[in-house]
Specification:
Layout lengths: L4 E7 L5 H16 L2 E6 L6 H15 L5 E5 L15 E6 L1 H11 L6 H21 L2 E7 L10 H20 L2 E6 L2 E6 L4
Parallel strand pairs: 1-5, 1-6, 2-3, 2-4, 4-5
Antiparallel strand pairs: 6-7
Length: 190
């Protein structure tokens, strides 16, 4: 079996990163075969999020290729056993996964909790990557905003930055998407 591949894609809100990731997953499936999987981390916590989830589901149901959707909002590593070396997986998104992990903990955001959450997320993603053909991971780029005014926001940005660094280090390719235009930051696009 060939080594599994990890592709990391980040960008600002509504930058086009998810569309780019979906197109990449479809291209990889057309080129190399495999089964399309959408690993959704979102929780329908309000009306806007409910509508976004429905829209994303409908978008994936249109077209020649069918996606298997798996919803997992916390403890991402628990579902690694669902996948095998024929799977092309799109995980959308790390930012939402981090939110879910932190706010489901119901405890103070101290260094111990943050380290535990970071470990659970990065280890879970690597476990999934190791079982798949390709894992495409999407995350939001939140580092262009000022985070010094609020300790909670600063802690969140710090932990997200560390997760991004670990994932990019493990990634074969990394892209930054702005205004719908992907910039290759690491690796060669295949």
């Amino acid at each position: 079996m060939a080594a599994a591949s990890l592709i990391f894609i980040s960008g600002g809100v509504r930058s086009g990163k998810s569309s780019f990731a979906e197109k990449m997953a479809l291209e990889l499936t057309k080129k190399n075969g495999g089964k399309l999987n959408y690993l959704a981390t979102g929780v329908a916590s309000d009306q806007e999020m409910k509508e976004r989830i429905v829209k994303h589901r409908c978008d994936r149901e249109i077209g020649k290729f069918r996606w298997r959707t798996i919803e997992q909002s916390v403890n991402i590593g628990e579902i690694a056993h669902f996948f095998n070396d024929e799977d092309i997986i799109l995980l959308d998104c790390v930012t939402t996964l981090l939110n879910n992990e932190l706010f489901s903990a119901n405890q103070k955001w101290d260094d111990s909790l943050l380290a535990n959450v970071m470990e659970r997320i990065t280890t879970g993603i690597i476990e999934i990557r190791d079982r798949a053909k390709v894992l495409i991971v999407v995350s939001n780029e939140v580092f262009h905003e000022s985070m010094v005014e609020n300790d909670l926001v600063f802690s969140y940005g710090r932990i997200l930055g560390k997760i991004h660094q670990q994932l990019v280090k493990s990634a074969d390719q990394a892209f930054l998407v702005e205004a719908g235009i992907p910039t290759n930051m690491k690796g060669v696009r295949k």
